[in-house]
Amino acid sequence: MSSHRIGLLVPSSNTTMETEIPEILRRQSALTGDQFTFHASRMRMKTVEKSELAAMNADAGRAAIELADAQVEVMAYACLVAIMSQGNGVHRGIEEDLTRTAADNGCAVDVLSSAGALVEGLHHLGARKVSIVTPYMKPLTALVAGYIESEGIEVQDSISLEVDDNLAVGRLDPSRLPDIAADLDTRGVDAVVLSACVQMPSLPAIPAAEKRLGLPIVTAAAATSWKVLRTLGLETVADGAGALLKKN
């Protein structure tokens, strides 16, 4: 049995990342015996709009240094839209910069992002075409869809719930997501991104959405958890957490 320290780079108004990711890894632990502790550093962001997201990105180095002091074994920057709104492909540079910052402060650790994890996870599933649900205003959803498409995955359809207050996003009812996703155009898609946001609660809805849609379901939080486990070299399994974490 192994024990691992997970570092979380968290928007200050996020209330979901520190519940869903630990819950997914608890389910992994129930199957494998691996153990995890979670250590967070927060960056100021209340409204999901480009200037606040850019300011939060600028503060990420400070948060990574704080987590470096805890000697965590992996860091996850879990605000997908903060990265995707800054330009196509930028997750690679942000991950590299934060990894370098952590190393310069005595913690040789990989830093991953929800943005990169979602794209990598969809490629891992062989998904060439997806439909997505986001809580964002439509212009930000368009940026997210464009980002995914720039990574070689077509976005056939999207639904924007148009909630810009990040705390309100965390209060959205996940039980509504299967019905919301059922309104997507899913003809010919390979997977559905049920929540393209780690703040929008989605974990409880994944099994029902899989049953309702008959398609592989991915969420930003599940993809982040999957990438954390891959980075640590651990088994990527967790019951009820979607296509990326199904036991083969």
UniProtKB/TrEMBL annotation:
It holds the Pfam family Amdase. It is an enzyme of class 5 (isomerase). GO terms for molecular function: maleate isomerase activity. Keywords: Isomerase. The modification S-(2-succinyl)cysteine is found at residue 79. The active site is at residues 79, 197. Transmembrane segments: none annotated. It catalyses: maleate = fumarate. Gene3D superfamilies: 3.40.50.12500. The keyword Cytoplasm does not apply. The keyword Isomerase applies. Its EC number is 5.2.1.1. Substrate binds at residues 14, 79-81, 136, 166, 198-199. Homodimer. Belongs to the maleate isomerase family. Catalyzes cis-trans isomerization of the C2-C3 double bond in maleate to yield fumarate. Reaction is initiated by nucleophilic attack of cysteine at the double bond, yielding a covalent succinylcysteine-like intermediate. This is Maleate isomerase. It comes from Streptomyces fuscichromogenes. The gene is maiA.
